[in-house]
Amino acid sequence: MTSDEFYMDLALQNAQALKGQTDPNPLVGSVIVNDGRIVGIGAHLQAGGPHAEIHALRMAGEKARGGTIYVTLEPCSHHGRTGPCAEAIVQAGLKKVVIATLDPNPVVKGNGVAILENAGIEVAVGIREQESRKMNEVFNKFIVTKRPFVTMKAGSSLDGKIATHTFESKWITSEDARRDAHFLRNENMAILVGANTILKDNPELTTRVPNGRNPIRVVLDSTLKIPLDSKVISDGLAETWIFTTEDADQEKEKLLSDQGVSVYRTAGSGKVDLGEVMDILGEKLVSSVLVEGGGTVHANLIEKKLVDKVILYFAPKLIGGQSAPTFLEGNGAESMSDVLDLADTSIERIGRDFKFTGYPIYN
Ligand code: AOF
Ligand code: ZN
């Protein structure tokens, strides 16, 4: 490992520790080294707060002069909620800037590097580039498309069942796997389900992680059939947003609004327009969504190419039964050429279960 990689790894670790706390801003870490000593460390803590480099520069003070700053993301060039970090680096008299990856934000992309180079500072880009890009997969999509990064999650038997044919589902996966899944709720800004899941399970959809953050509960409900006494409406534990269609009953909408629920109507009748749901969530700065189905919602989202990442917890069990529900319903692929391929896959053991992660490649 080179010393550049060593310091960049430290910056990455610090950034990673803030997962779930900075959105919709990226995870960013920074380390300043002078004369072989670390003189400043910083990470971006929350949107609206100082950027990683600013924290590190403040810690280093005069010791930054003549040193090298490591940043996991290109220093910014714009006057946003905070000042341009590239200019702060120039002011502080750094000699060299090592960057993991360019900022995909169109207002920054390359402009930060240009400010630094124009000031005569040596700039190196690409140290731990893959790691940094992966860490910010949510931000990278959101800042370019203005739509949230969507993770579809399910826990099933090896044969893909999420319940028995009598709809018994507690529990398929182990406690370890379910605990791991609660971290996903903590990391995502919103959790999305269909109204049928509410009717069948009446879930809370909160995070059972110590000091965890509850995601906004998003329910797709084309006819506003959700019962007023369901937990997501009445428990007050987190915000609930319901997406419905133009046809849905006005009176029911009023009853829901009176309970503090936000109701959004997408254009047209029939099914909720999922693309519009993502546009509205993006406008409201919801950069990440965890989808916990069921199978019809999963199929509809996949059909619209709206799922960015798939996480499946497989319990080493076989449930069987033609009518037992699976995590992916709908019509399914017609021919092998229509089958959805997942790339960049990995598998991890969690207790007695297997956690599979993959990224859909849409044609
Ligand atoms: C950095 N270091 O630590 C972060 C950066 O609203 P603002 O002013 O905080 O600007 C947010 C944008 O700044 C964000 O979209 C991204 O392009 C960049 N974030 N940049 O150099 C940081 N958090
Ligand atoms: Zn900045």
TrEMBL record:
Q: How is the cofactor bound?
A: Binds 1 zinc ion.
EC number(s) on file: 3.5.4.26, 1.1.1.193
Keywords in alphabetical order: Hydrolase, Metal-binding, Multifunctional enzyme, NADP, Oxidoreductase, Riboflavin biosynthesis, Zinc
Q: Which NCBIfam families does this UniProt record tie to the protein?
A: eubact_ribD (TIGR00326), ribD_Cterm (TIGR00227)
Q: Which co-factor is required?
A: Zn(2+)
State where NADP(+) binds.
155, 169, 171, 197, 201, 222
Looking up InterPro entries in the UniProt record yields:
APOBEC/CMP_deaminase_Zn-bd, CMP_dCMP_dom, Cytidine_deaminase-like, DHFR-like_dom_sf, Eubact_RibD, RibD_C, RibDG_C, Riboflavin_Biosynth_HTPR
- Active site, UniProt feature: 53 (proton donor)
Catalyzes what?
Answer: 5-amino-6-(5-phospho-D-ribitylamino)uracil + NADP(+) = 5-amino-6-(5-phospho-D-ribosylamino)uracil + NADPH + H(+); 2,5-diamino-6-hydroxy-4-(5-phosphoribosylamino)-pyrimidine + H2O + H(+) = 5-amino-6-(5-phospho-D-ribosylamino)uracil + NH4(+)
Query: Where along the chain is Zn(2+) bound?
Result: 51, 76, 85
Q: In which pathway does it act?
A: Cofactor biosynthesis; riboflavin biosynthesis; 5-amino-6-(D-ribitylamino)uracil from GTP: step 3/4; Cofactor biosynthesis; riboflavin biosynthesis; 5-amino-6-(D-ribitylamino)uracil from GTP: step 2/4
Q: Which family does it belong to?
A: In the C-terminal section; belongs to the HTP reductase family. In the N-terminal section; belongs to the cytidine and deoxycytidylate deaminase family.
Q: Where does substrate bind?
A: 185, 205, 208, 292
Q: Which residues form the CMP/dCMP-type deaminase domain?
A: 2-124
For this UniProt entry, the molecular function terms from Gene Ontology, in alphabetical order, are: 5-amino-6-(5-phosphoribosylamino)uracil reductase activity; diaminohydroxyphosphoribosylaminopyrimidine deaminase activity; NADP binding; zinc ion binding
Q: Which PROSITE patterns match?
A: CYT_DCMP_DEAMINASES_1, CYT_DCMP_DEAMINASES_2
Lineage: superkingdom: Bacteria
Q: What are the recorded Gene Ontology BP terms? A: riboflavin biosynthetic process
- Protein name in UniProt: Riboflavin biosynthesis protein RibD
Whether Metal-binding counts among this entry's keywords is: yes
What is the protein's known function?
Converts 2,5-diamino-6-(ribosylamino)-4(3h)-pyrimidinone 5'-phosphate into 5-amino-6-(ribosylamino)-2,4(1h,3h)-pyrimidinedione 5'-phosphate.
